[in-house]
Amino acid sequence: MKKAKVVIGKDFKVGEVDKRIYGSFIEQWGRAVYGGIYEPGHPNANEKGFRQDVINLVKELQVPIVRYPGGNFLSGYKWEDGIGPKESRPRRLDLAWFTTETNQVGTNEFVDWAKYADTEVMMAVNLGTRGAEEARTLVEYCNHPGGTYWSDLRKSHGYKEPHKIKTWCLGNEMDGPWQICKKTAEEYGRVAHETAKVMKWVDPDIELVACGSSSSAMPTFAQWEATVLEHTYEHVDYLSLHTYYRNDENGTANFLARSMDMDNFIKSVVSICDYIKAKTRSKKDMYLSFDEWNVWYMTPSHTYERWSIAPSINENIYDLQDALVVGCMLITLLKHADRVKMACMAQLINTIAPIMTETGGVSWRNTIFYPYLHASIYGRGTVLNAVIDSPKYDSKDFCDVPYLESTVVFNEEKDELTLFAVNRDLEDSMLMEVDLRDFQGYKLVEHIVLEHEDMKATNTKENPLNVVPHNKGNTSIEDGTAQILLNKLSWNVIRLAK
Ligand code: AHR
């Protein structure tokens, strides 16, 4: 059996976990909104047409923040279409996904939904077809107390109190040729700067996220970040990162190593931010918003009817391997808790999501729900700088991939220590030995495991409990050392407390 060693100390810290790293994303896309969160007439719909079964699942995940309304959809969106009486809202062609948007859910409905789901809204403004004027008026509509055209319009729509939306994204993936009105880094940098300025003039309490590259694979990656930050460094608070992985022809061992790419991506973006900080003689640090990340198997647009309303798009049914990669990605985000302050699993309902629904029917948990759940509820506190010594392997695209992917979160308030661990090994169990000398007297609370004899096992509407965690993991603690058995291809959460 392979063996890995981990040493941790109370004083060796990466940083405080900002709970917003457990954020998610709902785009006006496919059945995320219509048939996902909103389905008037569904037996579980509440008085506003929102599905209570879905709200309960979102609450179970304790999602702290949800990005809205896009995504690619954002770059053609007129937010004014989605306010006021529902019967007079226009239907529009959505050129991002070639569907028809009915606008029955807009800004106010989403704010209502967020309240039901106990979450915060991360609002995004369209910098594709639109600009500073439409962005600043949206801030005024949402956040200004009253006495002006836009804030009084909100009041006339039944929302007397301002929404007080704190976090705002300046556009979406503006470097992507697929974007409605993509921009060069210079063009976007200028627009983002001016838009940021006027949005903050309307409400100085807001925080802003500038668009980084759509992914590190973009040809413009790195230079895009540098140019955009040169224009915006003093006006924004975060820079965005996006990445998606899938299990391709290079195989599972390679797929499981993909989080190493995410790790490199974060390190590179941190370096670029710090370079611009130095270059502009700035005193502030730039933080990262990893506001789109997940596993994604893309289905092409010809698989649904063009201009249809809320068709089923990219409703990925994930397997155990996907859940393990999601687990590794969550661990990677935690390892960068000092710089990554927000992150959004993309997305939340139906489209590439942990929560699935049947229109008119049931809802269930995709496999990726579980690592997300465990990290969100147990991964709050301080990330410790664990020294990990693990056996390694090489895969098609990666060298020296540790079989053990792991991190540790210490919750001082609750006196709880949580170890997250993935065993990437396809064949063997592994013994993980953790030196707990700094955590004398800590006892095992539980060892949760997500595993399955078939790595392609999924949860479906018909069989929703096929891949579920159990808490019969094998951990013992003796003489200040924890001996933790990690079964092959498993996600593990080991909870210790005084
Ligand atoms: O999350 C799905 C899509 O992926 C988003 O609309 C877009 O921003 C990204 O390309």
Q: How would you characterize the overall build of this protein?
A:
By secondary structure, this protein is of the alpha/beta class. The chain has two domains: 2-10 and 384-497, Immunoglobulin-like (Sandwich), CATH 2.60.40; 18-378, Alpha-Beta Barrel (TIM Barrel), CATH 3.20.20. Helices cover 24% and strands 25% of the residues. The protein has helices at 52-61, 107-116, 132-143, 149-156, 185-202, 223-232, 252-256, 259-279, 320-335, 369-378, and strands spanning 2-7, 13-16, 23-25, 65-68, 92-94, 99-101, 120-125, 167-170, 207-210, 238-245, 287-295, 340-346, 355-357, 363-365, 382-384, 387-389, 392-393, 401-402, 404-411, 416-423, 430-435, 443-450, 475-478, 481-486, 490-497. The chain has an eight-stranded parallel beta barrel with strand order 3-4-7-8-9-10-11-12, surrounded by six helices. Strands 2-15-19-20-25-22 form a six-stranded antiparallel beta sheet, with helices on one face. Helix 6 links the parallel strand 9 and strand 10 (238-245). The structure holds alpha-L-arabinofuranose. Alpha-L-arabinofuranose is lined by residues 27, 70-72, 172-173, 292, 346-347.
